[in-house]
Amino acid sequence: MIDIRFEPKSKTPIQQFYDGETIFITGGTGFLGKMLIEKLVRTCTDLDRLYVLVRPKKDNNAVERVETMFEDSVFDAMKTQVPTWREKIVAVSGDCTQPGFELSEMDRLTLQENTSVVFHLAATVRFDEKLKRAVIINVGGTKELLKMCTDMKNLKSIVHVSTAFSNCTRKYIDEKFYEAPVNGDTILNIVEHLKEEDLEIIADKFVGDFPNTYTYTKCIAEHVVREYGGNLPIGIFRPAIVISSYKEPMEGWCYHVYGPSGICVGIAAGLIRVIQLDVHKTAQIIPVDLTVNALIAIAWDIANKKEKGDTEAPIYNYHSSWTNRITWKLYTDLAFKFGKQIPSVKSIWCYTLITTTNAFFYNFLTIILHILPGIFMDFALLFIGHKPRITKAYKKIHKHLSLIVYFSLRDWTFSNPNTQRLWDTLDTRDRELFYFSMKDFDWEDYMSKYIRGLRLYILQEDFNTVPTAQKRMTKLIYLHYTIKYTVLVLLAWLLYRSLFFAYIFLTTTFRS
């Protein structure tokens, strides 16, 4: 846990920028949003208020959802270091799928009168999201936010969080706007007048070369920012694949199993043994704490640029390959290296992984290494009186793997002059407090913390179980190699017998 305390006399330029400011955050209950709230409150202690848009649910209103959120241990450092933290954070009940976010009149007026910095994080990030919902949230939500922002009297900065893959149909991605596949208002009008089931029939025609509705709608959302944010102090932040924290506020913190983290957990559990992956491609992964630091600094930079009279919305690409890129091979090698040191006590098999770029070979190995063993294990579970669950788990795993294969087989080249310029211009103290440079990043140190974090926060296994897990893993390794070599010997014997009988048959035939 990091303990960073700054006296008023030593405040950095970024801290001074946030002094007395009122911040509005959408998507604050998500992975990135939680970390943003935590870092802002913990380091910018003199900010005035932080309003968080929260969608009420059937069993929990907005305030109750926020209270539940703060039970997460990721906020422990913030609570300890900032005694007044609770009075700074205000839950605002709203829904980004509705006009005007369905805000109450009082909340709307409060935001109009006081908000000076806006972070728009709200989005559906599901790769298999229905087109209608993806458009309403990612495109419509962005448009509604910008309409709200035009009425904010003290606005200094807006950061729209997009994704590095919003233009993934291109190989080279610069920090600039690209043509959207369709106008934002056009697609919003279409989804408004078509039923979801009718829209799904033709969804592929809309999405086109994009791999999913997420990247498709995020691309259109950038066009909406350009169209409706022209007179606003706004910029776009394009982070790559955001995964576990590096150091703040806890090493390796994470709470979801999407993307690369999901694969690591699947391997640790002994379930994933083959994936479709080009190990020579770049792993565009970035730690969530560094991502949040960049986000906070970008809001400050946007305000400065607006004061200087810049009219074009700046775009900031944030990716892993500044200088020392990490390939998927290095990622998997390091994951195995550190994973074997602290195996999971829940693992059903030892660590093993085959990677291939060939779809046919992948599908063949999936049957051999996933489906057939899964069926066998489910029969074993039934035999001992337990409910079968392995085959069902594999259905989810294979769906997840199919959704990310587009990104595991491709490479992109990102330029990032705006992001690097921002880093180069930061005060020395801001560089320490809001560190986000990926130049010469220590991937080995990060991966050691990353794997430990997955074990602790996702698998929820205490490290005092490591000795037991290591003994279990040793037994699984012996079992793995016993089965492996038994099968190889059996196959060799079958091959020998086949060749022997073929020889006998041919010899007998020719003699006759």
TrEMBL record:
<keyword id="KW-0521">NADP</keyword>
<dbReference type="GO" id="GO:0080019">
    <property type="term" value="F:alcohol-forming very long-chain fatty acyl-CoA reductase activity"/>
</dbReference>
<feature type="transmembrane region" description="Helical">
    <location>
        <begin position="360"/>
        <end position="385"/>
    </location>
</feature>
<dbReference type="GO" id="GO:0102965">
    <property type="term" value="F:alcohol-forming long-chain fatty acyl-CoA reductase activity"/>
</dbReference>
<dbReference type="GO" id="GO:0016020">
    <property type="term" value="C:membrane"/>
</dbReference>
<keyword id="KW-1133">Transmembrane helix</keyword>
<dbReference type="Pfam" id="PF07993">
    <property type="entry name" value="NAD_binding_4"/>
</dbReference>
<feature type="domain" description="Fatty acyl-CoA reductase C-terminal">
    <location>
        <begin position="369"/>
        <end position="461"/>
    </location>
</feature>
<keyword id="KW-0444">Lipid biosynthesis</keyword>
<dbReference type="InterPro" id="IPR026055">
    <property type="entry name" value="FAR"/>
</dbReference>
<keyword id="KW-0472">Membrane</keyword>
<dbReference type="Pfam" id="PF03015">
    <property type="entry name" value="Sterile"/>
</dbReference>
<keyword id="KW-0812">Transmembrane</keyword>
<dbReference type="InterPro" id="IPR036291">
    <property type="entry name" value="NAD(P)-bd_dom_sf"/>
</dbReference>
<dbReference type="InterPro" id="IPR033640">
    <property type="entry name" value="FAR_C"/>
</dbReference>
<dbReference type="GO" id="GO:0035336">
    <property type="term" value="P:long-chain fatty-acyl-CoA metabolic process"/>
</dbReference>
<feature type="domain" description="Thioester reductase (TE)">
    <location>
        <begin position="25"/>
        <end position="294"/>
    </location>
</feature>
<keyword id="KW-0560">Oxidoreductase</keyword>
<protein>
    <recommendedName>
        <fullName>Fatty acyl-CoA reductase</fullName>
        <ecNumber>1.2.1.84</ecNumber>
    </recommendedName>
</protein>
<keyword id="KW-0443">Lipid metabolism</keyword>
<dbReference type="InterPro" id="IPR013120">
    <property type="entry name" value="FAR_NAD-bd"/>
</dbReference>
<dbReference type="GO" id="GO:0005777">
    <property type="term" value="C:peroxisome"/>
</dbReference>
<feature type="transmembrane region" description="Helical">
    <location>
        <begin position="481"/>
        <end position="506"/>
    </location>
</feature>
<comment type="function">
    <text>Catalyzes the reduction of fatty acyl-CoA to fatty alcohols.</text>
</comment>
<comment type="similarity">
    <text>Belongs to the fatty acyl-CoA reductase family.</text>
</comment>
